[in-house]
Amino acid sequence: MSRRIPREFVPLDQNYLRDPAIRRAGPDAELLYLRALAHAKAGGTDGFIGDYDLPVVAVAIKVRNPTSLADALVREGLWVAVAGGWRIRSWTKWNMTEAEKEIERQKKRDAAILTNHRRYHSEGKTEPGCPHCPPRLGVAS
Predict the structure, then answer these.
(1) Residue ranges of region Disordered (predicted)?
(2) Tally of domains in the chain
(3) Are 89 and 100 found together in one domain?
(4) What digits encode the pLDDT tens for the residues 79-112?
(5) Do 119 and 83 have their domain in common?
(6) Residue 117 lies in a domain
(7) CA contacts within 13 A on the Cβ side of 104
(8) Helix (H) or strand (E) run with residue 126 in it
(9) Model's pTM, two decimal places?
(10) Dihedral, CA atoms, 22, 68, 97, 101, nearest 10 degrees?
(11) Are residues 81 and 102 in the same domain?
(12) Which domain holds residue 107?
């Protein structure tokens, strides 16, 4: 039996510790990278880390200047410097964008409406608000 994951999570390759870029960036930058993954997923930022969010993401990492850790991640190609902050380079390789997630949610909503229509609006039973029911004669929609 498969287990259902109760909420969203950030995919993390079990071999990430062997990634030379992670190792060259250093342990504090590695921790920042992992926290940034969680921050981006929870905030729905599509992998963007705002410069104003960096101190929050880096909280409790014993470094005076968290920007130096971000610079190490950029140097190693794990982050890309963009206007107003940084973008996690491989975010969309492993995570759907917020727009893609909304498309999936809409597909599920549409499928649920069709399922309910087939289950409850059959054999002449119709519902005025159902997009799949034919309009009733003499009833304004």
Answers:
(1) 118-141
(2) 2
(3) no
(4) 999 999 999 999 999 897 877 878 887 888 878 7
(5) no
(6) yes
(7) 6
(8) none
(9) 0.75
(10) 90
(11) no
(12) 96-141
DSSP, residue by residue, 38-105: HHHHHHT-TTEEETTTHHHHTTT-S-S-HHHHHHHHHHTTSEEEETTEEEETTHHHHS--HHHHHHHH
Degrees (nearest 5) of the Cα angle 45, 46, 49? 55
Report yes or no: 75 and 67 within 8 Å, Cβ to Cβ.
no
35-77 confidence digits (pLDDT tens): 999 999 999 999 999 999 999 999 989 888 999 999 999 999 9
Contact present, 97 and 46 (Cβ < 8 Å): yes
Predicted confidence at residue 41, as pLDDT, reads 94
The residue that leads in pLDDT, 130 or 59, is: 59
Q: What's the token pair of residue 42?
A: 């929870």
SS3 content of the chain, % helix, strand, coil (to 5): 50, 10, 45
- Note the pLDDT of residue 1: 64
Same domain for 113 and 57: no
Could you tell me if 86 and 102 lie in one domain?
A: no
